[in-house]
Design brief:
By secondary structure, the chain is α+β, with helices and mostly antiparallel strands. The protein has 22 helices and 14 strands. Helix content is about 55%, strand content about 10%. The radius of gyration is 25 Å and the shape is globular.
């Protein structure tokens, strides 16, 4: 049989129409697949699955002091599952964290092994590669965290049937949809955005699928969204000491707990105290969170009756705008991917978890700070220090140059006999607009791209200052952007790739 492998090119309106058609098809297919399930039952089953996944991700990162046990867990083979190596791990976890935690761990490991096997059998080898070991599985789960929570958001309204879902079958039931529809929807929206930025954008289709000639990676290496100044950067030694003194004890047998969330609030407020964060809109939200933790069950689930929730809202005087941020409203999958709302309305109660509340508070902290002019300026200097540290780790010599003849420079480093003049740009980019308003996102992206290009030209015009100061004859100019932009300018590097800076500069078209 002769198979037609003709590659078809689509551009302009034809490309965008295909993308929009696929977005509709994948969204409708996902909603249809979920419709047969019983909403409340599946919601809590999936919520328990998310808890187990979050525990698995955080166990080797924060939960273990035993390096040999940590390595045994990370290296545990899942395809095929190494049952002999699993048993001593289970015995150790029961001792350290108890029966319930270990039950969730084992359930997740067994399901992950089965999902990987199914992906392999169906020829989805790239997805199956994410389940080779627990270490691979943790990376796989991290890259899909956003979609796991989005499914949780839409289940109460998308599910209107009677079918139940066994707790030991949740990954088999839902992860094929994550791979086939959820990830695809995000990718399709990014392509729509790219089609509005690049005049030469096109899709190459072989009839079974398509690829684009431009790509965009919005997340960092740990699959988190960028922020102007993260809490790790803000926690200087003096702040760390003060925070440590305020912390309440945490049960070492718990990966997550109400006490840990209260400590997180203390840590956030202390780290950003110089901007008086506690006296912004963050303060009432933090107090509201503390009061909600009274209704925390098993140090994880938070279930607040509607009437109590309303009393708490009035007690801390949350505004209507603040309230709109707390409760998830949309039943649309794409809109839900950009939600950070910690509460979901379900059968007379508002349901949340300590991890959803923690996620929301970090988001809300950024909302409260991003318009603060002093924070914008300060975060810019912090960003420069972070870039210097990253380049020093890669063998660059960081100079102390900040100003020459009243001309300011961000980061000037030397490698070999070449000066690298690095501009650090901390311009905020709202990634939610990729899906909610791609035209606006594209317009702002083009504006930043032009701005960065002009900045590079400006630096080129004053490079003699650096040559004279350092006694070297070659200067190369780059921009490192804290927030990624879509560009063909190889001299503009996303901060998410800073650890590969040394390799990237060898590929720049100077």
């Amino acid at each position: 049989m002769n198979i037609d492998r003709t590659i078809k090119e689509l551009s302009g309106k034809d490309a965008e129409d295909l993308l929009l058609e696929q977005i509709t098809a994948h969204h409708n297919g996902l909603i249809q697949a979920l419709a047969r399930f019983n909403a409340e039952e599946v919601f809590f089953t999936w919520l328990d699955t998310i808890r187990a996944i979050e525990e698995l991700i955080n166990l080797p990162l924060f939960g273990l002091d035993n390096e040999s046990l940590e390595r045994a867990i990370i290296d545990l083979r899942l395809l095929p599952l190494d049952q002999a190596a699993l048993k001593p791990i289970v015995d150790a976890l029961v001792t350290l964290f108890g029966e319930n935690f270990t039950r969730r761990f084992v359930s997740t490991v067994l399901q992950a092994a089965e999902v990987g096997k199914r992906f392999n059998s169906k020829g989805h080898f790239e997805a199956a590669a994410g389940f080779q070991t627990i270490g691979h599985t943790i990376g796989y789960f991290q890259s899909r965290r956003r979609h796991l929570i989005t499914l949780l958001y839409i289940l109460p309204k998308a599910c209107n049937g009677k079918q139940s879902m066994d707790r030991l079958d949740t990954l088999n039931q839902l992860f094929p949809h994550v791979e086939h529809s959820c990830l695809t929807l995000t990718s399709l929206h990014e392509k729509v955005m790219l089609s509005k930025i690049f005049p030469d954008f096109k899709l190459l289709s072989d009839g079974n699928g398509f690829v684009a000639n431009h790509t965009y990676e919005p997340l960092d290496s740990t699959f988190l969204e960028p922020e102007r100044a993260g809490i790790v950067e803000m926690l200087q030694d003096t702040v760390k000491k003060n925070v440590t003194e305020q912390m309440e004890p945490i049960n070492p047998r718990l990966i997550f707990s109400a006490a840990e969330l209260r400590n997180n609030i203390r840590q956030i407020e202390s780290a950003y105290a110089e901007f008086d964060l506690a006296n912004t809109a963050f303060g009432p939200m933090a107090e509201f969170t503390r009061q909600c933790l009274v209704y925390c069950e098993d140090d994880y689930l938070i279930n607040v009756p509607h009437s109590t929730f309303e009393q708490l809202i009035k007690g801390v005087r949350l505004t209507t705008t603040m309230l709109s941020q707390l409760i998830h409203q949309s039943d649309d999958y794409v809109a839900s991917t950009n939600s950070f709302a910690p509460f979901i309305n379900l059968s007379g109660s508002y349901v949340s978890t300590v991890t959803l509340l923690s996620r929301f508070l970090y988001y809300w902290k950024n909302i409260c700070l991003n318009r603060n002019r002093r924070f914008q300026i300060r975060s810019g200097f912090i960003f420069e220090s972070t870039v210097k540290s990253a380049l020093s780790d890669q063998g660059f010599t960081v100079t102390d140059i900040k100003r020459i003849n009243r001309k300011e420079f961000d980061v000037v480093v030397v490698l070999g006999q070449i000066i690298y003049n690095v501009q650090c740009k901390n311009n905020l980019v709202d990634l939610s607009k990729i899906e909610s308003n791609p035209d606006l996102f594209a317009r702002y992206n083009r504006q930043l791209d032009r701005y960065y290009s002009k900045a590079l030209i400006k630096e080129k015009g004053r490079e003699e200052l650096l040559k004279s100061k350092l006694g070297l004859s070659e200067v190369r100019h780059l921009v490192v952007s804290r927030f990624p932009i879509a560009t063909t300018n190889s001299q503009v590097i996303s901060y998410s790739r800073i650890d590969h800076f040394k390799a990237i500069i060898n590929m720049v078209n100077w």
